[in-house]
Amino acid sequence: MAVLGCIADDFTGASDAASFLVKGGMRVKLYNGVPEKAEASEETAQAIVIALKSRTQETNAAVEDSVNAARFLLNQGVRQLYFKYCSTFDSTPQGNIGPVCDALMELTGAPYTLLCPSLPVNGRTVEGGRLLVNGIPLHESHMKNHPLTPMWDCRVDRLMEPQSRYRCVLMNREQLAQGKAPTNQGTEPFYLIPDYVTDEDGAAIAQSFGDLPLLTGGSGLLEFLADRWTSQLAAPGVIPESASAGKALLIAGSCSKATLGQIAWYQNQGQPCCKIDPASMLSGSQTREEIWRFILEHTTDDTAVLAYSSDTPERVKEYQSLGQARVASLLEDTAAWLAQEAVKAGFTRIISAGGETSGAVTKGLHFSSYWMGESVAPGVPIMVPAERDDIRLILKSGNFGQEDFFGRALSLTQKKG
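Given the sequence above, the corresponding structure tokens read:
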């Protein structure tokens, strides 16, 4: 029976979380949304992750969905809940992290919980309450102009308190070394924000606060929680095989600096690429059927096409002038349709870059749950749909992965011989 249940505020965040649980030694099942009922295979899952859409959802709906997910997990017998959000937080005063954390703290009766957005392996750290990205304060980093959650401050307490009903308390490394929460906090629940700069900090946090019924943060802390739980379980979890026989398709929609670099790397290898141009698609001079024909004509067992809509911030602004919602819907629908066509044509490996793009792909493929395999990069696992054990999906957040990410993903998922 699962001992840890994780609620993630979007799909790529859920797969990110699941990957660190696997790294910590657990067998992990991921659900796309709150399931109506548990599956028989839950008996072999040691951790369950539920992917929601609560990051940018209307607040009341986000809270309701998160509480429903928590109740499902508690009904499965999990002994600890973890609310996973982005390692760069959600910095709008109207953000959903506060309301969801408040509701989950009240549901579990936790006297306090943690806010731990740190993910040191990807350069996200917290020190003195300040959230840094590769040593740069969050609101001065490249994340400051995020289109949905612009970053206006780096102090986690100042980001959280406008969203939440409860106070935030900072905890420095000296206090962490003592292993105790600051005392004299009164009777009301509160949030503790510990310094978390290194993996050693993460291990210390898990050791000191791993018995709390509710914890919250990015994916970094989950590896150490999983390691702690695994030491109490009969055996480490068994993960599925990474490789599968069959053709592959690459789809990219993220406009992050990391993904743009990964696209450029793939192009520089002389691999076939197809640019999805929103203006051309809206005018009818490019169609999704033409893109699919290009993919079929240039795909072999050893060669994969990269279909991408990713572009520079300047070009993205030009596209958005055509109607931001209209363009976003067009690109997401196209990504979902291409993934559907690929699976129907016998492709067994789908690799997607970008949160919205990956969400569209999962929606288009209609798989409800996944087993988690090894990671291509920190926070980017290979996923095996419970309904189709021949298929391998890799769905990454835009900012994740090495420059040669697409090459690594193809190599790891290709069955040799």
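The chain has a mean pLDDT of 92. Try to locate this feature in the token string yourself.
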